[in-house]
Amino acid sequence: MELISIPLPSPAAGTSRALPFLRFGKEGTGRKAYIQASLHADELPGMLVAHHLRNQLTELEQQGQLLGEVILVPTANPIGLAQTLLGTSQGRFDLRTGQNFNRLFHNLSEEVLERVRSQLSSDPHANQKLIRTAIRDYLKEQTTIDELSAQRLALMRLAADADVVLDLHCDCESVLHLYTGTPLWDRVAPLAGLLDAQVALLETNSGDDPFDEACSRIWWDIAALVGNEFPIPLACLAVTVELRGFTDVSHDVAERDANALIDFLRLQGIIAGPLSQTMRPACEPTPLAGCIPLTAPSAGLVVYLRELGETVKAGDPLIDLIDPLSGEVQQLLSPVDGIYFARENRRFVPPGTRLSKVAGHQAVRRGSLLSA
Predict the structure, then answer these.
(1) What keywords were assigned to this record (predicted)?
(2) Closest alpha carbon to 72 in 102, 101, 33
């Protein structure tokens, strides 16, 4: 194991931060996996999973079980980790710019294609190597002056040439669920089974350029842009793993999740050895455009009427929203048939708050599909 630290530009006189990461195996040897936790710095289940992964990967490396390289970033957002307001962590949005830490990662597709188009051939492996080199070169040439942009660039430099990218997050309160690119589902399905995910949300362009898409969509974008002229493999399997809710932080659960991720890396040829568990079938995937949020029409006290993970029908009551002064109760209904999989953890909310999410089977939304 090698511990490396990437310095970030100072945001103010007398202040400096760095982005630390761990490398297991040898750089450039075999297939590469990249795993990061807490890009939204107040989402902590992934940080504990990373702790267990560190211990397991250290042991596997000592046993000679690593067939490739694993980059582990236990705290992917030192900026957000330092943001506390009145005793409460503010790790989702940068307090200087208001930007979401998991948005606005640069879409490399057009720039990289411009560099490689004249050199593409009928050999998919040669094309993969060519595109990977162009990705590294492009990111190496980029410069930044502010801390947030430098953090984004550092994370992309670590991840964008990986075969597997796993971005560990959580929701407010939820069952375990995944986000990934539609073209990747067949290869992601084993991960869903290993993690016992209840929902998998698929899209090719969810809007606002989250981290996982910035790593993986370059491959299907370029494939679409060149059409049938050249074979372009989907060389980066990137997944956002939502590890349940904010308070689901326990050693037993985190160790089980870490075991599942290690087993997935075994399936990817990055770690040797047999699986530690029996493969379960994957959940049925649904389009991200079919994930319908339920929004509070007014301020009120929130009472949830159904349990997470339940299958619901359109029109089923999900929430009582109570005005404590008038006594009025607004009953909020499921907008579609689907899996009721995530909800807000606050129990008194202002108007416009997204309270719950239902994963429906039909793609009905347009535009930016991710919450703020």
Answers:
(1) Hydrolase, Metal-binding, Zinc
(2) 33
pLDDT in tens, 204-231: 999 999 999 999 999 999 999 999 999 9
Q: How many CB atoms lie within 10 A of CB 115?
A: 17
Q: How many CB atoms lie within 10 A of CB 234?
A: 18
Kindly tell me if the per-residue pLDDT of 157 is higher than 80: yes
Interval 242-298: pLDDT, tens: 999 999 999 999 999 999 999 999 999 999 999 999 999 999 999 999 999 999 999
Q: Which domains does the chain have, with CATH numbers?
A: 2-284 (3.40.630.10), 288-359 (2.40.50.100)
Q: Provide the token pair at 232.
A: 């372009």
Q: Which residue has the tokens 């289940």?
A: 45
Express each pLDDT in 70-115 by its tens digit: 999 999 999 999 999 999 999 999 999 999 999 999 999 999 999 9
Closest Cα partner for 312 from 332, 328, 296? 332
- The H or E element containing residue 34 is strand 32-37
HSE-CB at 327 with a 13 A cutoff on CA atoms is: 0
Residues β-bridged to residue 237? 164
Pairing state between β 2-7 and 18-24: antiparallel
Among 323, 313, 298, 327, residue whose Cα is nearest residue 360: 313
| Number of residues assigned to the chain | 372
